Amino acid sequence: MTVPEETKGPTRRRIAADWLAALDTALTGHDFAAAAALFTPDCYWRDLLALTWDIRTFHGPALVEEALRAAYEPSGFTDPVLEDGDPVVGAIGERTGVVEAFFGFRTALGRGRGFVRLVQDGGAVRAFTFLTTLQELDGYPEKTGRRRPRENRHQGRENWLDRRIATAEFADADPEVLVVGAGQAGFTLAARLGQLDVPTLVVDKMQRIGDNWRGRYHSLTLHNEICVNHMPYLPFPDTWPVYIPKDMLADWFESYAKALELNVWTGTEFLDGRFDEDDRRWTVRLRRPDGSIRTMRPGHVVLATGVSGIPNTTTFEGMDEFRGQVVHSSGRTEDLDVDGRTVLVVGAGNSAHDIAQDLCQRGADVTMLQRSSTTVVSLEPSAARVFTLYSEADGVRPLEDTDLRSASVPNMLLRELHGPLSKVMAEDDKELLDGLRAAGFALDNGEDDTGFYLKLIRYFGGYYINVGASDLIIEGRIKLKQGKGIDHFTADEVVLADGSEVKADLVVLATGYKPMQEGVRALFGDEVADRVGPVWGPGPDWEQRGMWSRTGQPNFYVLGGSFAMCRIYSRFVALQIKATVEGIAPAPWSTTTSTGSTR
User: Fold this and answer.
1) Are residues 255 and 304 in the same domain?
2) pTM of this prediction?
3) Are 441 and 518 in the same domain?
4) Where are the beta strands (DSSP E) in 217-337?
């Protein structure tokens, strides 16, 4: 049974309100079996700090019951109440007639907000997905809207600029939080911490804010629509293009840092850090642009250098004799004179395709070396299907509502949904994919036939969203070498494992990055890296490992991912840090997951 889409608003409100009341009654009476019976047999409960003080997903009524039993009392979960406005009737996967509703609640720490999808199941209304999130700590609201600070115009000779300069220098005090990396991850977190009155410093070895985008290949634009990529507190202008060019984005970062009053030190290299278990503070060393070393004692360190980590730059025999240039895809290629030169691009992911396309359009004779199969989808319509939730809500619903709806679909459920969706994409892209196969390009549809987006969740790579390079491969303008790795270099050529030779003036190693844990190891040493453990990729409950929540290393967080991921999860990293600073953070608890393991 499903709820008809034409069901009137008051009826939908009654359905959702009655379900929330039944849940509240069961939990208040400590009847956790009755609470679990309000969920479908294939249900998902995802919690972002509200009840578990962690990021967790529980699949199935048995695990939901176990988790509620453990979390209900210590979390102080009370008063789940339907928000104003009528719930809608929607669909998720093959389920239609789904009542979707936002609700608020309270916990021992503060105000929460949730989202539930209700279906008719066995003659009863049950929850298919249930999301609970902590939004605000009691006594520590963000300084936004009516809570924004009032500038005192009579504070002596110092004005706003004087105070900003002094604050950013940290001459007489250390920051509470040191953020390493001035990209979307670092800036979204620093902005949120600023609104919570947590002194924060962002450091980056780049010479200018935005250089992490400004210095990339000439033709780069974001591969998803602008509506997905806004940053907290300050959305992009309505006049901007759907796909943002890299230099436009780079300049925006500079404006964002000024507008949000972020403290940023550019040209500053993070050298090392050591955690003192006794006073719960770090000792870190930073090399400033003039070569001097600044030692600081922050309470927390956040690694926000991106999911990619350290470039994977393999050394091959004969490279020292090679007369051409060898660069990694993380370096600059836009300043190279490539007109009329032969270029070998090693790799077949997003960066490899984009760089190959850029160099080809600048007059280079480009060959792509594809060593393993790749998932390819068109920018439109296929890749855009993943972000339909945002494009349909753009200008219609608040972005925070859309973020909540997005977060309510855990990775475990995404794996189920993207199998059928990837088949629709493949049908949309049939002509493109057939052309690539005819050109000798090796294709796959991801593990479990789940397409490109689950590759992002698993590896943050292994796919390409076509913005033109696939067409150049089909046309033969980008040549293809397939399935063979590099054996060695000579003075003028790259010799492949099968003995074939590729003449090259320039070799671009689009060979990816080492695991993020190795980035932690390089900066903080083996002990911290081993405590943190693997970063990125699904854990036992399919939440990302080592990301966005407490790690095995006290007072250390890793934040990264897409713009949307950084915007959504920076809120929860900031709340965890603020609660720790104020001494109100509870100890996280663990329970078994659907695999029988703990996260």
Assistant:
1) yes
2) 0.94
3) no
4) 264-265, 269-276, 281-287, 293-296, 300-303, 325-328
With respect to residue 540, please indicate whether it lies within any of the assigned structural domains.
yes
Distance CA 140, CA 150 (A): 17
For tokens 């360190």, what's the residue? 301
Domain count, the chain: 3
Query: Does a structural domain hold residue 523?
Result: yes
Is residue 246 within 8 Å of residue 218, measured between CB atoms?
Answer: no
In a domain, 242, yes or no: yes
How many angstroms separate the Cα of 588 from the Cα of each of 50, 62, 415, 550, 591?
Answer: 11, 21, 27, 9, 10
**Burial state string for 247-286 with b = 16 or more CB within 10 A and e = fewer than 16:** bebbebbeebbeebebbbbbebebeebebeeeeebbebeb
Helix (H) or strand (E) holding 101: strand 95-106
Q: In this structure, how many other beta carbons lie within 10 angstroms of the beta carbon of residue 157? A: 5
Q: What residue numbers bound the domain in which 358 lies?
A: 319-382+414-509
Report the chain's terminal Cα–Cα distance, integer Å: 36
Structure tokens at 230: 């806004």
- What is the full DSSP assignment across 169-216? HTSSS--SEEEE--SHHHHHHHHHHHHTT--EEEE-SSSSTTHHHHTS
Last residue of a domain, one of 451, 475, 509: 509
175, 250: one domain: yes
Q: What is the domain-level CATH number for residue 72?
A: 3.10.450.50
pLDDT digits (tens), the chain, 599 positions: 456 655 666 799 999 999 999 999 999 999 999 999 999 999 999 999 999 999 999 999 999 999 999 999 999 999 999 999 889 999 999 899 999 999 999 999 999 999 999 999 988 999 999 999 999 999 999 999 989 887 665 567 888 999 999 999 999 999 999 999 999 999 999 999 999 999 999 999 999 999 989 988 777 899 999 999 999 999 999 999 999 999 999 999 999 999 999 999 999 999 999 999 999 999 999 999 999 999 999 999 999 987 766 888 888 999 999 999 999 988 878 888 999 999 999 999 999 999 999 999 999 999 999 999 999 999 999 999 999 999 999 989 999 999 999 999 999 999 999 999 999 999 999 999 999 999 999 999 998 899 999 999 998 889 999 999 999 999 999 999 987 899 999 999 999 999 999 999 999 999 888 888 988 999 999 999 999 999 999 999 999 999 999 999 999 999 999 999 999 999 999 999 999 999 999 987 655 544 333 34
The CATH number of residue 430's host domain is 3.50.50.60
**C-alpha angle 393-394-396 in degrees, rounded to nearest 5:** 65
